[in-house]
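Support request, priority: normal
Reporter: lab tech (M.K.)
Component: structure prediction queue

Hi team, I submitted a job for UPF0145 protein FDO65_01575 from Nakamurella flava yesterday, and the status page still shows it as pending. I've pasted the exact input below so you can check whether something in the sequence is tripping the parser. The sequence length should be 122 residues. Please let me know if I need to resubmit or if it's stuck on your end.
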Amino acid sequence: MLMVTTNDIPGWQIQRVCGEVFGLTVRSRNAFSQMGAGLKSMFGGELGGMTKQLAEGRNEAMNRLMESARSRGGNAIVAMRFDTSELGDTWTEICAYGTAVVAVPTDDGARQTANELGYGQR
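Reply from support: The job had stalled in the queue. We restarted it manually and it finished. Here are the results:
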């Protein structure tokens, strides 16, 4: 599925707006990652365990976002954003949101992208 952070897609015409969609996940922090992060923060450097957890949470939220767009009849998402908030001391909410649309390619570059995404095979 084509997903962009812009309000339009160059080379594509938005034929229909299907509505706002979102994908949500709530993650608890791994105690071992947090202990490691606490130690690492004293010396500096990337918190690898926390980075991995955040990436996994964002991917899960994006997958749910795409499924929501498909269920509303969309083949693309425009104005995609993330929102993250803390719930209590150990939970993190990750929300991916945007607008589901039906978009069709209008130039050769967009048609190539559509073929790569498998739009022509449906």
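The chain has a mean pLDDT of 86. The chain has three helices and four strands. Let us know if anything else looks off. Ticket resolved.
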